[in-house]
From TrEMBL:
The keyword Ligase does not apply. This is 2Fe-2S iron-sulfur cluster binding domain-containing protein. Residues 4-80 form the 2Fe-2S ferredoxin-type domain. It comes from the Bacteria. It holds the Pfam family Fer2.
Length: 389
C-alpha cells in the first residue's frame, strides 16, 4: 500500500512520518511514536480508552485515521506531565480510588480534563452524562465521578495551553546536509521543504541510542575510501544489503534483509549520503521499513577515513539509531552493540577484500542470518561470564 506523509504536532513537538493511509491515530501514536499511554480497547470507538485531544477536542483515536489529522495538534496523556490541571485530576483519582486495573484511566483522565475545562459548573449528574462515552469494568464509576467533582469544587488550576509548535522557523543547512533550526527542532514545514518524506529529520533522532566504533585496515586510506565512498561497492559489502537505485540529490534506495528462523524482515527504504572528498568523511541519514512487521528503523551515520603511520588506515563510525514497532524488542543498546560488532567484522573483512581486488563473498556470507548472530552474541556473553567467575 502506498504510504503518505503525516505532518502534525504531538504533545508540542513537530512530527513528520510516513505511514499507510489506513493507519489509525492510536496505532500511529503507539507504534510509530512509541507513545503507549494511549490504550486500545474495543477499537470501535465505543469504550473511550483511546481518547486523546485533536486540536483541543476529545477524539477517539482508534477510529480516526492518522492521515486525516495532517496539520493538527494532538495531545495524548503523555503531553500532560507538567500540566497543573491534569496533576490535580491525577491526585484526585488516587485519593478517590478512581482506578483499579488502570486500562481505561488515560481516556478517563483526558475526558475528565475536558469536563473540568469546559464545564466548570457541572454537577455530578452532568459529569456522569459526559463520562458516558468512557467505559470502566472495575470501579463502578463512583470514584471517577467523585474525583472529577473534587477538582471542580476546589478551585481547579488553569489548564496549561500546549505551545503551538507548527510555526516554521528559519532553517540552516549544515555542511553535511542535515536540517536544523534555531531551537534545534525542525518544523514539519521546514522538513518538508528540505528533507524527502522518506528520510527522518535529524531532530527526530535526538536522544536516540548511539554507538561509536573504529575499524582498522591493513590497506591504505585511499584504497578503503574508494570502497566506502562508492554506494554500490559499500552496499555489496553489507550482508543482506541491496542497492536498487541512486537518484538525484544523493538519495539511495534499497533494502536489507535479515532472517531469524521463522522471523524474516526486509527493511526497504531511502538514505541520503553526503561526502567530503577532501577530508575523506561522510554523513548518511535514512529510514527503512519492514512491511510485514510494520517496524521502522531510522538511522544516522557519520564516518571518517584516516591514514595510519604504518601504512594502514582506520575508519571511525558514529551511529545513532531508532527502531520502532514489534522488532523494537531487539533494540536494547547492549544487544545492538554486540550484534553491530559482529556485523561490522563481516563488513570490514568484505571491504578489505574488495580493496585488495578479491571477492568478498568467498569468505563472508551474502545474507544476514539473525540466528547465527544471536547465537554468537549469547556465546560471547556466556564466555565472558564464566571468565569472570
Amino acid at each position: 500500500m502506498t504510504e503518505t506523509t503525516v505532518d502534525l504536532v504531538v504533545n508540542g513537538a513537530p512530527v513528520s512520518e510516513l505511514t499507510e493511509p489506513r493507519t489509525h491515530l492510536a496505532d500511529f501514536l503507539r507504534e510509530d511514536l512509541l507513545l503507549s499511554g494511549t490504550h486500545l480497547g474495543c477499537e470501535q470507538g465505543v469504550c473511550g480508552a483511546c481518547t486523546v485531544f485533536v486540536d483541543g477536542r476529545p477524539t477517539r483515536s482508534c477510529i480516526t485515521l492518522a492521515a486525516s489529522c495532517k496539520g493538527a495538534e494532538v495531545r495524548s496523556v503523555e503531553g500532560f506531565d507538567d500540566d497543573p490541571l491534569m496533576k490535580a485530576l491525577r491526585d484526585a483519582f488516587k485519593r478517590h480510588h478512581g482506578l483499579q486495573c488502570g486500562y481505561c484511566t488515560p481516556g478517563m483522565l483526558v475526558t475528565g480534563y475536558d469536563i473540568v475545562r469546559r464545564l466548570p459548573d457541572a454537577d455530578a449528574e452532568r459529569v456522569r452524562k459526559e463520562l458516558s462515552g468512557n467505559l470502566c469494568r472495575c470501579t463502578g464509576y463512583a470514584g471517577i465521578v467523585a474525583a472529577i467533582m473534587d477538582v471542580l469544587e476546589n478551585n481547579p488550576p488553569a489548564a496549561k495551553v500546549q505551545p503551538h509548535a507548527r510555526t516554521p522557523q528559519k532553517t540552516e543547512k549544515s555542511a553535511a546536509g542535515s536540517i536544523g533550526t534555531a531551537s534545534g527542532v525542525a518544523s514539519p514545514a521546514a522538513a518538508e521543504r528540505n528533507v524527502p518524506a522518506s528520510i527522518p529529520a535529524k531532530s527526530s533522532l535526538a536522544g536516540a541510542p548511539s554507538l561509536s566504533r573504529t575499524i582498522r585496515f591493513n590497506v591504505s586510506a585511499s584504497d578503503i575510501w574508494a570502497i566506502v565512498s562508492d554506494p554500490e561497492k559499500i552496499v555489496s559489502c553489507i550482508p543482506g544489503g541491496q542497492l536498487d537505485s541512486i537518484t538525484d540529490g544523493n538519495l539511495l534506495q534499497g533494502k536489507c534483509a535479515v532472517s531469524m528462523g521463522p522471523i524474516k524482515a526486509a527493511f526497504a527504504g531511502t538514505a541520503r549520503m553526503d561526502l567530503n572528498e577532501a577530508e575523506k568523511s561522510g554523513h548518511v541519514i535514512g529510514r527503512g521499513k519492514d512491511g510485514l512487521s510494520r517496524s521502522q528503523l531510522d538511522g544516522m551515520l557519520d564516518f571518517k577515513m584516516t591514514g595510519l603511520p604504518e601504512k594502514g588506515s582506520e575508519l571511525t563510525l558514529d551511529m545513532v539509531y531508532k527502531l520502532t514497532g514489534p522488532l523494537s524488542q531487539f533494540s536494547r543498546p547492549a544487544l545492538v552493540a554486540e550484534i553491530a560488532d559482529r556485523i561490522l567484522d563481516q563488513v570490514a573483512a568484505s571491504i578489505e577484500a574488495l580493496a585488495k581486488g578479491e571477492d568478498p563473498h568467498e569468505t563472508q556470507p551474502r545474507n544476514l542470518n539473525g540466528l547465527s548472530l544471536m547465537a554468537s552474541v549469547f556465546m560471547g556473553w556466556i564466555k565472558r561470564t564464566l571468565r569472570f567467575r
